[in-house]
What we know:
Oligomer: homohexamer
Strand order of the largest sheet of chain A: 3-2-1-4-5
Order of helices and strands of chain A: EHEHEHEHHEEHHHE
Number of strands of chain A: 7
Helix content of chain A: 40-55%
Structural class of chain A: alpha/beta
Number of helices of chain A: 8
Radius of gyration of chain A: 17 Å
Strand content of chain A: 15-25%
Amino acid sequence: MNVLAVGAHPDDVEILCAGTLIRYRRAGHSVGICVLTNGDLGAPDGDKATIAAVREREARRSAEVIGARLFLLGEPDGFLFDSPSTRIAFAEVLREFRPDVLFAPDPNDYHPDHRAASAIALNSLVLAASPLQRTGSPAIDALPAVYHMDTLALVGAAPQRWVDISDALGTKLDMLAAHRSQNDWLRCTDGVDYLDYATKQARLRGLQCGTAAAEAFRAPEFFPIHRAGSTLPGLDDQPGLDHQGD
Amino acid sequence: MNVLAVGAHPDDVEILCAGTLIRYRRAGHSVGICVLTNGDLGAPDGDKATIAAVREREARRSAEVIGARLFLLGEPDGFLFDSPSTRIAFAEVLREFRPDVLFAPDPNDYHPDHRAASAIALNSLVLAASPLQRTGSPAIDALPAVYHMDTLALVGAAPQRWVDISDALGTKLDMLAAHRSQNDWLRCTDGVDYLDYATKQARLRGLQCGTAAAEAFRAPEFFPIHRAGSTLPGLDDQPGLDHQGD
Amino acid sequence: MNVLAVGAHPDDVEILCAGTLIRYRRAGHSVGICVLTNGDLGAPDGDKATIAAVREREARRSAEVIGARLFLLGEPDGFLFDSPSTRIAFAEVLREFRPDVLFAPDPNDYHPDHRAASAIALNSLVLAASPLQRTGSPAIDALPAVYHMDTLALVGAAPQRWVDISDALGTKLDMLAAHRSQNDWLRCTDGVDYLDYATKQARLRGLQCGTAAAEAFRAPEFFPIHRAGSTLPGLDDQPGLDHQGD
Amino acid sequence: MNVLAVGAHPDDVEILCAGTLIRYRRAGHSVGICVLTNGDLGAPDGDKATIAAVREREARRSAEVIGARLFLLGEPDGFLFDSPSTRIAFAEVLREFRPDVLFAPDPNDYHPDHRAASAIALNSLVLAASPLQRTGSPAIDALPAVYHMDTLALVGAAPQRWVDISDALGTKLDMLAAHRSQNDWLRCTDGVDYLDYATKQARLRGLQCGTAAAEAFRAPEFFPIHRAGSTLPGLDDQPGLDHQGD
Amino acid sequence: MNVLAVGAHPDDVEILCAGTLIRYRRAGHSVGICVLTNGDLGAPDGDKATIAAVREREARRSAEVIGARLFLLGEPDGFLFDSPSTRIAFAEVLREFRPDVLFAPDPNDYHPDHRAASAIALNSLVLAASPLQRTGSPAIDALPAVYHMDTLALVGAAPQRWVDISDALGTKLDMLAAHRSQNDWLRCTDGVDYLDYATKQARLRGLQCGTAAAEAFRAPEFFPIHRAGSTLPGLDDQPGLDHQGD
Amino acid sequence: MNVLAVGAHPDDVEILCAGTLIRYRRAGHSVGICVLTNGDLGAPDGDKATIAAVREREARRSAEVIGARLFLLGEPDGFLFDSPSTRIAFAEVLREFRPDVLFAPDPNDYHPDHRAASAIALNSLVLAASPLQRTGSPAIDALPAVYHMDTLALVGAAPQRWVDISDALGTKLDMLAAHRSQNDWLRCTDGVDYLDYATKQARLRGLQCGTAAAEAFRAPEFFPIHRAGSTLPGLDDQPGLDHQGD
Lengths: 246, 246, 246, 246, 246, 246
């Protein structure tokens, strides 16, 4: 299977979804990470182009930890909007990578770019599946199963699925550590250590489901619902990943 | 695995959950059906004891279709309450049958007995798991995974899991047909045919997830959440069925 | 048509529903008011039996203002519960009065007796419609259309229907004034004037829908939903008041 | 009365609202249908301009079935946004047709164009009522009563009004059949028959309210609420359609 | 402390928040009012530029009543959108005024400009706090505490905080009276008197919390939550107003 | 002020509320803890009376840590119900201790006894305030401000108030450690360490509001709302703790 996670900034996907991506990789699946902005506001000072370059390097280093394919769409940090051009750009990513499973930010997460990323991800699906919408690659034949990631610090989230990442937490922290510039900044301005932060969130999600660490997700309430089959314990249908939206 | 479904009246479980129970049976699991009341208001006229006897026969016939074990608790129809005695009675069923998966009515379903059945099912779990609560059988070692069934006619329901019952719909209708007295009564007073009703609901749930027929469920939002693991496509953990509540 | 409103204490129905009952009376319909408790905690001092007698007189005086039939069930104030006996008592009221429309308290109103009254009202319907549940009167043939009244001071309410009571507000205040003991008590302990209170609430509900005064309601989300037909402007079906629950 | 339904694509209005429009026509009211996009992604292959032309013809044929006035705004399929130009264009439709009742898509329906159509419909009302916003026609004097249509396959919908379309279902299917290109496409790619689909949804909404077929709606929660009056059975006020927003 | 309230049109802030601003002024704090549009649709006839000029004068007069600093951003009435330019403009206001507390419209209020103002207010915070986003003023060091105002006529609102404005209601009405053109218009077209309207709403919010008049608010559910400390009676921590978003 | 926290079992209050109680004590207020059941199911084996005695000793030891007054009502563990007798018993506690602030469990917490405790706490208020309901103590003159505690592991909770317990966490763990029998049992059956559990939850609530540790609360949505005044930063009204419900 192909598994794609999309975030607004370099490191967004890692914070809320890396453990699950690691598990998919270990299970032999292909993993992609798509970052919609260049993250060029992500520093206390300096030059925007330099920041963007630093963050791109960090994103590559993180993706390499699990051999994930990286898509960088380069929108301006702080100004991500659901627009024709961002929809088309992400639709082309969907067509190139052809995910079976797609992880997108929570539509109510705290940062406006995160909420825009959530909208772009969902609103591009129908374009990616429409043959008459021409991009560089052919239309996808089927919509991926879509899940929203958790919110930062669990504020307002209402997950329905928990993934045990007890054995993946160390590697998740390695991926986060690759985003060194962000951790330096947060430690300096907020006194927050990134890795400690992500660990606390994973531990709490683990408390909820009885594991040492977990990540949490929920499916958006949109037609068509792709999850008939294997979703109850012991019933082993293949998920119905063959339905085309319109 | 042991799979138990609990309803207030004979036929409640069949209407909303039979297709899923059939699938569990076909997958080789043990299935139990627990009926909390005797259904003795379920007729336009006649004698209550006679009605109860008719409905018990129908319940047995229906359970036999899939070789399900039947538990009849005999509470008075229309007066089911979450009380010490109903909790203890159902806790003993949980201890005897020791389910891994438990299906209970939606807490907001339309009939007061259904709502009471939902409460009894959930409120008995902790008693069944408490060794110092003595009943005929030893305490259960782990809580089952719990799911709420759909509501009648989908009114107010918000499911999260869909089970494809396309191949089980015929057998589901056979089970419903066993409750002949109820179908006769509904046809007479409401002009409603039971089997037609259940078919329409299954077809619509099928529309939602792209199958010919489906049943829908959701998990209650209670600690501990047992579903870490196999809940995302392609991640094949065993569900964590080993946690003791209290 | 027969229109029944049920409340926990003498004056509950008047506060939130009197304007609508007045309009029904003026349109030529029969109106009933059912009070589930005797209201015997409703005084700062004195004897409970005396208080109950005072409140009964006040309830009768209020009902006489619009010629409503009064049902007093006499449960103890502060201790109203949804139980077999309260269900059976209210089911008999339903069978005697045979309402086409039933108004019940909001299930989340602030007073525990109000919430119990809401539950009793809804949970008795199925008993009233079951021929084998014997009471003094024959089973009802059809369920009434049910609406929840507003909450006190609009706290937490989410109404869907607004009734213009601009021309009925004066009479509503007359009915409230009949409950003189309550107004005396509230003025003394809380500095609140009853009639002023109800006026402010009616004025605000009026603001919402563009009238001088209004009362607000919502329908519970239960199967079967009886409102096909006349619910959109200009479509004049008769409401489907002929469906029997089960 | 004038009754207007607005959708994103040719056929959207028919799927969720045609039965109700048919009933309005039969009751002697004027009906309008406004389609915001040209639907030019609605085919597996071919030329966008050709597709758009085919769909326009189909939309006309469908509208002719009930003698509805058709407004085609020609936005690009898949890229409908709530913007100054789409608001102004729809405000002019509101001013030309001057609806008393307006049906708009659910704000959470599954297709991004549907959600945009819902936003455009609501956000244009205030412009249409503002005299200083100049378009070809004079400002409307009053806001229409607004209702959201159902969602596709009922996913996530929470309707409050049900309209009996038992006698209109045949004509509804005729209107849907006029959109032949879409049915051909869906049958081919998804194995779904349009007419069968709409029938199942109407049957299920009928189950909920005790009719053979129904369509379902809900009112948005916005000030001012126009529905004082005739909204309870037997109270026959005219709906308050005379309030101007701002 | 610096306290900033933002609204879409001149008078929006006054209707829902003036009493609270008055109380802040009386407690010695600085108050700012930011109006995002020029309100140039706010008249039944005349010239847009003239209307805008009238409304600016009225806004100044109202602000002068309490010595509030006024920010006028001049977006076109009826067409307020969350866009790069409106975000940057409001971010600069945040940097100039440097509020400790920010009041923004409810995200679901009835007017599209109000909903856009709510989005702009929240989506600009992160820009205002990002040093690399250059505007005329330096980045803010900490995010303000944010509260949503009430909705008009309480439709759909779910407040969590009530502010007693019994002693400020007179001054609030003075501020509203400064917006004479709007009151004239509303009285003419809707028969609504502004001051009466605001009084009824304040009286009802007062009923809810036991005061003669009140305004109501709620905090958005976004990370980071700044309100540790003084939020329970008798615990007198200073609110944690020192956290920087990212 | 007098601050009362009520829980179903010995240790319930400590897990979710101890840090806040410690802060109240340090601020010089009186603190009470009311435990509704005897907790006699709280062991893997042994004699119920012995278990109850052990837990009473542990509860006393914990309360002594902060000099809290302890009320033990002795209902049977696993069978707590909202009934006349439990309401009267808790109303007498309210009258004896006369709290200004009352903490009760979340109405949707995971354990049926917790949900019952939540109901009993709220449903007793009106009795406690009714002079004609005779118990050993005179009626309370005013209702306390009421807050719901957090849920276990944050499942389903939606808090509105956060209390910084960074400096109180150590003492909270001391109180929890007093309940040694429970920690022994949980470590044995679930491999869970109590103190570690509570620490993780406090750390996560701290993440949300930018402190090292926190506890979270929300107010029930009931009339009358007592919180006018001091609820916004910098507005220093005394909370309106003088309103009598009924």
